[in-house]
Amino acid sequence: MALKVYNTLNRKKEEFVPIKDNxxxxxxxxxxVYDYFHIGNARPLIMFDVxxxxxxxxxxxxxxxxxxxxxxxxxxxxxxxxxxNFKVIARKFTDAFFDGAKKLGxxxxxxxxxxxxxxDGMLELVxxxxxxxxxxxxxGNVYFDISSFPGYGKLSGRDIxxxxxxxxxxxxERKNNPLDFALWKSAKPGEPSWDSPWGPGRPGWHxxxxxxxxxHGNKTLDIHAGGQDLIFPHHENExxxxxxxxxxxxxxxxxxxxxxxxxxxxxxxxxxxxxTVKDILTKYDxxxxxIFFLLKHYRSPxxxxxxxxxxxxxxxxxxxxxxxxxxxxxxxxxxxxxxxENSDNQIEAYKKGIEDAMDDDFNTARAMGHFFDIAKxxxxxxxxxxxxxxxINAAKQIFDTLGTKVFGLTFDTQKKTDDLSNDLMNIIxxxxxxxxxxxxxxxxxxVRNRLQEIGIVLEDHTGGTSWKYI
Length: 470
Prior knowledge:
- The chain is an alpha/beta fold.
- The protein has 3 domains: 18-283, Rossmann fold; 309-406, Up-down Bundle (Four Helix Bundle (Hemerythrin (Met), subunit A)); 419-469, no CATH class.
- It has helices at 39-57, 73-82, 86-103, 119-131, 160-166, 205-216, 231-246, 277-280, 286-294, 306-332, 341-359, 364-379, 386-406, 419-437, 441-453, and strands at 4-7, 12-15, 23-28, 61-66, 135-138, 141-144, 181-186, 201-203, 221-227, 251-257, 260-262, 265-266, 302-304, 456-461, 464-469.
- Strand 11 and strand 12 form a beta hairpin.
- Helix 4 (119-131) crosses helix 6 (205-216), helix 10 crosses helix 12 and helix 10 (306-332) packs across helix 13 (386-406).
- The longest helix is centred in the last third of the chain and has 27 residues, at 306-332.
């Protein structure tokens, strides 16, 4: 089955064919680093990380680019409020972004370009647009003239005349058209600025992504991705300025994830439901957060709630418990595996099911269903049946490759332990085994029950006793 993706530009699923052989230039709009990133930002961060991993699994050479917007009005305003240089704010929240991404299991990008490192490229692109009569300068500001680009609105599907009518409020009279957007902003007193042919100033938000993506990718990207909220105006404006300058399509495929609500409402600081990843990770296992997003198709809206998180935790526990049984059986095995053709065929069908789901516009929700089917099969197996070893061994390979390397999941059931806690549990199990040998059933039951009260379950097997978290 060929990989198909939903292209926002053409509003349909299309077969994915890279521009050059198996090489993929994949650009994702990264954070504006003025605050701790929130749970809504985590969705594209996690989902496009999974897409990148799957493309690599499929054999593509992926050049994955995630930018850092480290100069912006919001950064400047926060710096002024705290009485510090804007670089202090940008550095603090850039570090926080990388720390949160790492905890969420997100792989580092091939490159993380920063806007302030690419000012020269932005100046060059602005000059090029002026020279081609796609932009004009007014009082040190440079604006893109949308009337010079006939394709404006093709990504969002918006009607230009309607947009112009809606933009008449608070119009900047210096613009030729209320929808013309800033490529370069003249500096206000006390603001950070860079020298330019139009006077001191700083780049507009949209020009930053165009320059960084072209520098580290190509004039035409294979994939440009981001949240649905970026379709207009950010991505629409990126297309206009990039294609006007270069005369070639800016990106072959456009991918956008759906919106996220909190308990059925839009996330807002004023509503008191603004959830940062930093705070969320103090309450939840980061892999639960990954599962939460994976259980929903990336283009669908998603509601973040305690109930949904509990469902995600239960789903992860099912997979971890199955993986725990896999490891126990394989470690305890004292015989050669007997390859059972029926088991081999069944596990291969699950693998194909996962791959087919991902080939269908990265349908992680459907793919996860096959993982749960595998887990159900594992839990129903007789661990002493030699024919089961073939199934279990193959299942482990799927968990380790597709589960861990593609979906970024970890199946370690002993998620809170280190070597010391393992040693302590082994001592407790030994004490209980001695109590059972001495027919001290009261003590043996007491140990089991007290452990269960703190979320630890003992499982007795022919070869001994194992333990896991509930």
